[in-house]
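Need a sequence for this fold. Nothing fancy.
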């Protein structure tokens, strides 16, 4: 399965929403989800939707999931942006799925 996620926020501290789609090896849509996250910044909402998507995949019994996460490059390229942002807890929850 492949999980694609994306999110948006109105400003870098504003109302945010996110969603994802899971496809099989042929590209067939297996499931999709979306939700309003609330008032937050873009990094938190990106991590939230990845965590949510991985949780849904686990609940559905998908043991092998390829994650397509565009913002991951930013996280590893600019690690200083994570300091003091409250994101470390979300990161540790995501790492439980790896």
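Here you go.
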């Amino acid at each position: 399965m492949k999980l694609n996620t994306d999110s948006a926020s109105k400003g870098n501290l504003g109302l945010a929403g996110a969603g994802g789609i899971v496809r099989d090896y042929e590209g067939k849509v297996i499931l999709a989800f979306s939700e309003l996250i609330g008032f937050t910044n873009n990094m938190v909402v990106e991590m939230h939707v990845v965590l949510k998507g991985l949780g849904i995949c686990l609940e559905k019994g998908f043991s092998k999931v390829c994650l397509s996460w565009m913002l991951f490059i930013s996280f590893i390229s600019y690690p200083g942006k994570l300091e003091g942002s409250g994101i470390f807890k979300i990161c540790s929850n995501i790492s439980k799925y790896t």
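For context: The chain has one domain: 2-95.
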